[in-house]
Task: structure prediction
Amino acid sequence: MKAMIFAAGLGTRFKPWTDEHPKALALINGKSLLQRNIEYLQQYGIREVIVNVHHFANQIYDATKKNNGWGSTIYISDEQDRLLDTGGGLLKVKKWLSNKEPFITCNADILTDLNLDKLISFHQQHQPLISMAVTHRKTSRYFLFDENNRLCGWRNKKTGEEKNAIRKPGLTEKAYSCVVVFEPKIFPLIPFTGKFSLVDVYLALAKENLILGYDHTGDKLVDVGKTENIVVAESLFP
Result:
């Protein structure tokens, strides 16, 4: 199985580090976020990884080369000319991921001890187009699921904005963990080009395709997108 790590973001919430470095190379107890995610994937036998880059891209090139991919084979998807967001970034590497096997994506700034074997088994058992890891935790934006864990919509609690792919009563709010299993047949179904978010892809496809949430509430998970979460991350991931 192959994986993609999204590491191209500008990291505007992670200043002053990102004034001179990519967020993916920020250190948590002496290891970069990128290294930690590569080693996390290795725990489950995933050693072919593509990483998209944009902000201070050369530093990621250099770190990957200097450390021999931290034991994995690392490919770089270069977005220095144009930042494509998660959806556009994924579509750019479709040739690399388009085979018969499912693949995984994760974000460089998310640290978790989610058991990937369990997520993959869930995906194999239910055979959706997409299986996304989610938890019951407090955030400002939620995906909405029915009683069968099927994705039906999205809600922004701060603004009140809501997007519905399937209108149903009694939907459950769950927070996105940014660890996802995809079937490669997703690529011809994506209705966007250029720069776009995976959130838009999920909502565009959810009505006609089965997209499921895999609840892993209770696992460790830290969004290290903000500098104030470094202390939390260092306490949970020694």
Summary: The domain at 2-236 is CATH 3.90.550.10 (Spore Coat Polysaccharide Biosynthesis Protein SpsA; Chain A). The chain has one domain: 2-236. The mean pLDDT is 97.
